[in-house]
Amino acid sequence: QVQLVESGGGLVQAGGSLRLSCAASGHTYFSSYVMGWFRQAPGKEREFVARIRSGGLTYYADSVKGRFTISRDNAKNTVYLQMNSLKPEDTAVYYCAADLDYTATDYREYHYWGQGTQVTVSS
Q1: Quick check: 36 and 24 in contact, CB under 8 A?
Q2: How many CA within 13 A on the CB side of residue 45?
Q3: What pLDDT, in 10s, does the model give residues 18-56?
Q4: CA–CA separation, 64 and 84 (whole Å)
Q5: Whole-angstrom Cα distance, residue 74 to residue 109?
């Protein structure tokens, strides 16, 4: 089992920045997991934001490319999401997810989830 705890959400003005963190614990070989960030706005389906594979390869949704950066610190069992140039449409609950299957892309393929952290961007 892997437990994930997100932190770093909050209220920020458009154009501002936030850094989300996701700490993993439990019976985990953290470095082996693909780690993903997803978000869900009210009334909308959960959507992919970014993911990082065990070797550091990263992928981003087109909507955040160039503004968000995902990274990981395997020594700290932590993955980060640096969010710059935030827009009101980035407002959502952000979730961290993990899976051992490096091909996992869609949120339905991830086995482990955090509780989410709210990000609100005001205009």
Answers
A1: no
A2: 5
A3: 999 999 998 678 999 999 999 999 999 999 999 999 889
A4: 9
A5: 22
CB 96 within 8 A of CB 37: yes
What pLDDT score was predicted for residue 102?
A: 82
Please report, for residues 68, 110, 123, the alpha-carbon distance to residue 44 in angstroms, rounded to integers and kept in the order given.
21, 19, 20
Exposure string of 42-80, with b = 16+ CB inside 10 Å and e = fewer, is eeeebebbbbbbbeeeeebeeebeeebbbebeeeebbbb
DSSP 74: G
Over the stretch 93-112, which tens digit does the pLDDT of each residue have? 999 999 998 888 889 999 99
Alpha carbon distance 95, 118 (integer Å): 9
What does residue 81 show for φ and ψ, rounded to 5 degrees? -135, 105
CA-wise closest residue to 100 among 33, 37, 35, 46:
33
Q: How far apart are CA 77 and CA 94, in angstroms?
A: 18
CA atoms within 13 A on the CB side of 11: 2
